[in-house]
Amino acid sequence: MNRPTVFVALQQFCESDDRPLRLLQEAGFDVRRNELGRRLKREEMLPLLQEADAILAGVEPYDAQLLRSLSRLKVISRCGVGTDSIDLETAQKLKVAVFTTAEEVVEPVAQMTVGMILALARHFPQHLRDMGQGKWRKQTGFLLSEWTIGLVGFGRIGQAVGRYLQIFGPKILAADPRLHPEEVPAGITLCDLGKLLAESDLVSLHASRSKEEGPLLGHAELFSMKPGSRLVNTARGYLVDERGLEEALSSGRLSAAALDVFEEEPYQGRLRDLPQVLCTPHVSTLTRASRSAMEFSCARNVLRFFNGKTDDPSRLVDKPPAAC
Question: Beta strand pairing status for 97-99 and 316-317?
């Protein structure tokens, strides 16, 4: 009997800990890897994946046409929480199971978010740019206790960000239509998105929304934000109209932004050239501890599936995420 084939589509896998790879190999899987050193492009995927029974996936695209062409595929184990790059409806019709590593991303993304918030409060983007140009120019920063901070989306990551922020004493608003006020912890006020945008000195995105629905913060929403406020996005690049954000920042309507995610990656757009914008290359989950935990979970999900253990509802994805 042929061994089931696992294709590791991730551009980074087991760089600091090879135990997830050995776990699969010792369980009898034929493990094949993305050896290109970069994210797979759509046109490259069919030849590489056509013999795969399982895929350890990143954010490369799994559209309906590709999924229908992968006749052997039984499971996609996503190393991360987002599934917007996977056509979940088609996967469900084809009985392809989709798993994520939702719990493992919470702490690293929440910490990255708080780091970005603090960086904007103390004008890090401008100071870094000035120092790099040999300028010694000081800008007065803010204590977070001076601010109202709005969290758009209050799931696992949004809640973790809220807990961390409470140490610093800001007023915290949260907008999430799935929640009722009694479900929100003490010290955090639930409100609608319009009120949050109008009153927050800084808005941080933690929402789930399909790409087909369009930006959550389009031009109108960006220009409805409190004048001089700031935006942090560690969620999904397509949640923000990037051209609208560039206009809002260039015009002074918004004073700064910190972005770890972009609609098209690697990002080559003009936002990275604005002195008040902090850009990072989608690294919010990339710490040694969290990456190792995600890779273990990703590999274990495949083992669980082939061992007939798919009864963990926190990991199995069977429908698109609800919009925030």
Answer: antiparallel
